[in-house]
Specification:
Blueprint lengths: L2 H7 L4 H22 L3 E4 L2 E4 L6 H13 L1 H27 L4 H5 L2 H39 L8 H24 L5 H22 L17
Antiparallel strand pairs: 1-2
Helix pairs in contact: 2-3, 2-4, 3-4, 3-6, 4-6, 6-7, 7-8
Length: 221
């Protein structure tokens, strides 16, 4: 039994498929923005810990393939707005009075540090995400309707990601960490992000085959 057959047997509606695909996209984006508050290493290269964000590029392709360009574009904008609203909410939480014992244990200081920097990370991420993912969407659309129309499907992932990954990797660290980290460190983050995201693309390109050209859903409702 194929993955497609298994999904079809679940008798899912189009609405359910939409919630599943777009829900995971928003989860990847939101989780990555919180994890990105930590700066870490990959070998000798410096990078943020929001590595899970790499999955959004291929997952966007799945949404585009199954639900169309308009749903993919809507998902990008909704994810950006959701991340921004979450960051603003966290800023409000920072301002709430801290319970004394929790504050004495370092909770308030840690929260202020993480989520004061997080607003910059979210702003950088939202700007980078919208620009890079829109480029990814249009590249995917042009490729599938033009030179890549009859080419293997995995090339859709490689071609669209080849455009969007460098764009995202340079915009995000400059906005999120400019003035906090040196330009040498930001340059290392740029290189590390391209390398990691390229590895994720190679490791996850097969996911495009999880979603066939024909609908996964069995009902329109």
């Amino acid at each position: 039994m194929t993955f497609y057959d298994w999904i079809r047997q679940r008798n899912l509606s189009k609405s359910q498929i939409t919630v599943i695909l777009t829900g995971f996209y928003i989860f990847f984006a939101l989780t990555a923005n919180i994890a990105a508050t930590k700066v870490t290493y990959f070998g000798s290269l410096i990078m943020d810990a929001g590595i899970i964000y790499c999955l959004t590029f291929t997952w966007r392709d799945l949404i585009h393939k199954q639900l169309g360009k308009s749903v993919a574009l809507t998902t990008i904008w909704v994810a950006g707005i959701a991340n921004l609203l979450a960051a603003l909410y966290f800023q409000g939480v920072v301002l709430l009075p801290a319970e004394t014992e929790w504050a004495a244990a370092g909770g308030q200081v840690a929260w202020e540090f993480l989520f004061s920097i997080q607003i910059r990370i979210v702003i950088g991420s939202v700007i980078a995400m919208i620009i890079a993912e829109l480029c990814d969407t249009w590249t995917y659309q042009l490729w599938t309707q033009g030179p890549g129309k009859d080419k293997p499907q995995f090339l859709r992932v490689f071609v669209s990601n080849a455009v969007s990954i460098p764009i995202d990797s340079i915009i995000f660290p400059i906005i999120a960490f400019g003035g906090i980290l040196s330009m040498d460190v930001i340059w290392q983050m740029f290189l590390a992000n391209i390398f990691i995201k390229a590895l994720f693309t190679v490791a996850a390109f097969w996911m495009i085959y999880l979603v066939p050209e024909k609908p996964l859903y069995t009902r329109k409702d």
